[in-house]
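request received
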Amino acid sequence: MIAEKSKQGHSFWVDYFPLILVGVAVLLVCFIIGPQRYYQRVLLLVVLWICICSNFNIISGYGGQIVFGYMLFVGAGGYTSVLLFKFLGVNPWIGMFVGAAVAAFLAFVIGYPTLRLHGHYFAVATVAFPLMAIPIVAQLGWEEVHIPFAGRGIESMQFTDVRYYVLMSAILLVVFLIIVRMIERSRFGYALQALKQNEAAAEGMGIHTHRVKLLAFMLSAFLTGIAGTVYCFSILFLLTTPAAFGLFIIVRILSITIVGGIGTLWGPVIGAVLLVPVGEVLAAEVGDRWPGFQDLIYGVVLLIAVIYLPGGISGKVTEIRRRRKRLASPKVQAIVAPSNPDSPPKRGTPSSFKVGTSLAETRGRDPQGPILKVEGVSKLFGGVRALQNVTIEVPRGKILGVIGPNGAGKTTLFNVMNGYLGPEQGQVFFKGKDVTYLKPHDLCQMGIGRTFQIPQIFSNMTVLENVMIGAFARERNAPRAQAISEEMVQKMGLSHRGQDQAVGLTILETKMLEFSRALATQPELILVDEPMAGLNPEESHHIGEIIQGIAESGITVMVIEHVVQSLVKFADYLVGLDEGRKIAEGSPEEVTSNPHIIEAYLGQKWRRRYAKS
Amino acid sequence: METFLQLLVSGLLMGVSYGVLAAGLALIFGVIKIVNFAHAAFAVLAMYFPAFWFLEWWGIDPFISSIIALPIFFVVGYGTQRMIIDKVIGTPAAEMSTLIVTMGLSLLIENGILIGWSGAPRIINLPYTLGSFKVGSVLLNQAQTYSFFIALVLIAALFVFLNKTMLGKAIRAVADDPESCAYMGINLRFAYCLAFGVGIAITASGGCLIATYRPFNPFYAETIIVIIFACCILGGVTSVQGALIGGIIIGCIQMLSTMVVAVALQNVAVFLLFVLFLYLKPEGLLGRKGRVV
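response:
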């Protein structure tokens, strides 16, 4: 969806004008309502809930880390500024930022350990914090804090006319929406969405996932801290712990974002416009007889939305639009696809895989010596010795093949080499530097690319966006990263699929996507894990050509492959592994005729037969 | 020393009740692999109905209600799984969706109670609510003592059900490897519904026990849900016996913490411990990775 728009060019107006219109619309409604306090209050609530939900969206929608204890930040912001105002006479405008800073600080303290947890462990862990805050705040004697009315108008953020609050929150809303849109369009935003879909792959693409999550969490909390202050000053006259830290806040946030569409800019806007007025009217109509009826409705809506409308309204709209677009241009695709079947890249031009300025050329390097060295590496899984004292040197600019039967430790070797696993013993040197315990994202930044045995793609992103995630490893600017990616996708013969969701690709296309993405990170060394698994001979041949092309452009390639026959055709050197040990190395001919290798693959009988012949 | 002993015993009595609630949660987590956020809400629902209202209407003792609650809440749990949670399982983001759905469910139950039976705190007032046995210098609350034994029986029954009956074994097998179970002719949906039903039933029963000695209100669930999570995590997340031990530890910590901090902050101590454990030892005190039920 993002790329759909960006395809039409990053027009400032297309991106940001509608956001300003939202603010104008709020003011227009405010003007129409006139001096009726009650309706102004409902409008104000709508705007404030959009603000809070948009901020929630940053970490939980785009980043996918659903913070069930999000009310902590609303309460922290509100309580800080109110207490500062009441007891120290601090101006709420300053208090607002102090509150936001407190919220961001709390996010750091909470997020630093818990963001390493996965899925529901993280969600449940965050719930504990607001529940802790309630008794602590109560114990300090602030269970109920009356907000004194200084009545100094704009100076004390206290207006008698609700319309001023509406104006203020409308401005805030536009600012928040612009921030969210900027994130959406930035490298940071892409990183968030990538790690949401596949954290391991995101690491491999040079994204420091923990840092990105933590930053998003703190930013989100900071902005919500600001919103919390405005919420307390404009809506509440009596600040209580349940009102500031209550579970109902997160249920409302979730209902609004999920109904509208989580992880989209317009989701919170749509959700709040639909739900908040209904909730408020219900509370006003039947709230006396049935207290809690409003929350009951939110609960029901949440249930229905999660079950029947998982993508929310904006998700539904995108889906319909996409379907219509596909219907509108079925012929083009039908003709292009078969006549251009995965369009074999034009080889022969050796530099065909260079992207921008090739790192292999521009970076200071010594052309002598191996680019990567594995020294005496051992890795244990429980009692299983996956790797035992393996030493390998990867010669620069060549294609090194790794062969061995199932369970020989080939993939484990790759995982140790690019940081997914730490070895028990031994060291890994990349360009002479010890990189043994560096993380995948560091190694990607240093110039090691990787494709996976089981393709690790960002399935809900388009092909182009997938490649952009790779390009962002070197290129901070989004339009330039997009240009690089478009070029790469074209070279790999995937341009006709550029705007399609990666989840619908064929196996070959998926592999091509992995190559494009890895090459977009501009590696000096690329680790390719079983690129031919699941492909027919013709497709395998195509992959072989691509690997040769990559090597010709000056990038060192290390390939794991099961099918020795195809590997022999293009590898410069081979290494044979069996049961975690290196059993052979040398030229392809040497290694394939090595009796250990024959035995490992085919058993002793064949070895004897081979020996006779 | 005497206070210490007194608090320790109270914590033990209290903790076993937590253990019952946590056992249900652990069963559900172990088998269906979902975190049931509405778990405590079901327990609170059982405090009102049957425990409180059966006593009000027909004078049925809450301890008898705790047995009556078993079949009622088995049906409730079975239906919840069948009609609501089952629809979300298997979708791409099932882990989060189920958590969100159960959170919505808990809000539904809490506010349903609020609307139907008002928000006033309720207390069951029977001779044993405040009565106590004296053992040496330690006072044992009568209601808590009875609850203690019933809770132990409940957990033992659950243990026997899971280990000795065919249905129980099927549930454990599903917890271990759902895919192979499907190939072995076990109906996964049925097993999930069964596990959820049993988990909710035992929790409801535990709720009735707690109702005999604790005042409660519609939002009591929000106070105890994290406590139950904490028991579960301590006990190894998916282990029923572990949940019991986790419950006892949490109960004791909750009581003993009052020696150091204000009574109102006793839960803060528990929550802190919970977060620490989640971070440092998410597989719990007893749990091994991948251990089931």
